Amino acid sequence: MTTLTIMRYLPREDPGNVSYSEIGGLSGQIRELREVIELPLTNPELFQRVGIIPPKGCLLYGPPGTGKTLLARAVASQLDCNLLKVVSSSIVDKYIGESACLIREMFNYARDHQPCIIFMDEINAIGGRRFSEGTSADREIQRTLMEVKMIMATNRPDTLDPALLRPGRLDRKIHIDLPNEQARLDILKIHAAEDVRNDLDYLAKDISKQSEEGTT
Fold this sequence. Notes:
alpha/beta, Rossmann fold, 2 domains, six-stranded mixed beta sheet, 9 helices, 6 strands, 45% helix
C-alpha cells in the first residue's frame, strides 16, 4: 500500500495552533492527558530514573461534542508534531484483511514521519467486545494498535473489549463529560473574551438551566 493510498484514506490533519488555554472546563482532563502523552515524549528520563514504564496510550470517552478531538489537536499542536485523525468506522474492511493492512501501513507511515500522534475516533467500530476473539484481521489490528503511543476516543466505552483496556495497552481512561455551570462559564470567557459587555455569569447559569430542562 503506497503513501498516496494511506493519505487518501487517512489524510494528515493540521492540528493548527491550539493551546490548552483555549479549552475551557477541562483542566483536570488536560493534566491527565499531558501526563500520559506529553510527559513521556518530552521527559523520558523521568520514567527511566524511577524504572517506570510509560503509558502506552489513553482512551477519551464521553458524549459527542465534549472536546475529545480538540484535546487531541491541542496535544499535537503543543508538541509540534503531525496528527493523523482516523475515524475507525471508515476503515472497517470491505474485504478480508484490508483494515488490518491499512492500520499496519498507517503505523509505518507514522514512524516514518515522527513525531506523529494517531488519534482514533469511534474506536468501538473495531474494538468491540468480540475484538480479541475475532478473525485474524482483528488480531492483527489489536497487535498493531499496541505498538506505539496513541489516543483513542469513543462515546460508548461499555462496548469495548476489556482486552483493549487492560494495563499495558490503553493504560489511562479519561472521562470527558458534559460541562457543568463552571465549565460553561470558562468556555464562555474564552470565546467571548473580546465582548466584555455580556454578563457571562448570567449566561452560564441560563445555559445550564436550559440544558437541564432539555434533558428532563
